[in-house]
Amino acid sequence: MLGDSLNGIRVIDFTQVAAGPVCTQTLADLGADVVKIEAPTGELCRALAPFVQGQSLGFMALNGNKRSVALDLKNPQQREAALQLAADADVVVESFRPGVMQRLGLGYEDVRQRNPGVIYCSVSAYGQEGTWQHKPGVDGVLQAVSGLMSVTGLPEAPPCKVQVPVVDMVTGYVAAIGVLGALARRRRDGEGDREGQWIDASMFASAIALQQMSFASYFADGVPPARIGSAAPYAAPNEALRCADGWIMLAAYHPSRWEALCGVLECPGLLTDPRFRELSGRIAHRRELVQLLEERMTRRPRAEWLKRFEAVDIICAPINDYSEVIASPAFADARLSETVRHPIAGELTLPGTPLRAVGEVPRARRPAPLVGEHTCEVLRAAGIAHDNEGDTTCL
Fold first, then answer.
1. Which listed residue (90, 168, 221, 391) is catalytic?
2. 92 bridge partner residues
3. With DSSP H G I counted as helix, E B as strand and the rest as coil, what are the percentages for the chain, rounded to 5?
4. pLDDT tens digits, residue range 307-336?
5. Is 0.90 surpassed by the pTM of this model?
6. Is 168 considered catalytic here?
7. 188-207: per-residue pLDDT in tens?
8. What residues contact 315, with CB distance under 8 A and at least 6 apart?
9. Between the CA of residue 349 and those of 17, 45, 61, 210, what are the distances in Å?
């Protein structure tokens, strides 16, 4: 099964908030044993709203399938325990600002001295090298500085970020891909030549990668793209259109679908209108085109238009809110939610993993751990001296 792909791989996780935890949860979903090292007070995401019974939903959404070890990395004995765990790991992932792990004696070179084959992945705002490497950054700031906010929203409106932390999420997946590539290289080269690698996962670079098509266009013509709402700058009609009782996202820019759309809307004159005959003209005259299309579409309800469009293979979908999303057949068929029982928050429904193979039902994640829930278990298995069995730090 896909979920067994990384069985036998041990990951030591020094990450917090979102980007790093997305990476390590992805590895855990593929079967890796992920041990999360966090302060006895818990990592930062545990303090972020919303909460259920005092437990952060954000933390629980991004830290399933992991074990938690609570260590105070400023304490020499506990820092040494963390280094010993890293020395026995296949992968170490951290998401502190560059230089922090080195100052703690847990940087790549420190771990590599004890574990030459370690795959060490650093997740940061601007990467491990360069002028901005020490700058702090969070998702919204990276959406701003990467240009993403400049192309998001309506033309006359203030700058607008993507509400979900899209840069955090894509950086986590980029980091996981880097780790998987390094693991594949190690397998190719054989266990006898286990050379380590330091993976550099930058939120800034990942945010630029989200915009590959837009930057390619800018490199070609030097014109910064403008905010155009829901529309795609390279095609029309390819945007949200108003119906009598809601909205539809519609993509009918290929010649055959453009012709089919005009037929369904019973407006053949658009086909011969010189403004709209070619794709370039439809893009140039998008505002007038949308106005003419919506004059027709606001005469009928959304469900009727969807039925008519789908009958002639026009690409379209309703613009759903979350209640409509989870009620859709696509959501149910893909099994994109799971129920877990958390020892404090109780029974919860959370998003499931998108990782799957054809014919395979993904296993539900274990709930996110309590702070230090597995400290004694992990330290005992690693042969690290510990005491105070009832204490989460065990040291």
1. 168
2. 12, 120
3. 40, 15, 45
4. 999 999 999 999 999 999 999 999 999 999
5. yes
6. yes
7. 877 656 788 999 999 999 99
8. 250, 251, 252, 257
9. 20, 19, 10, 29
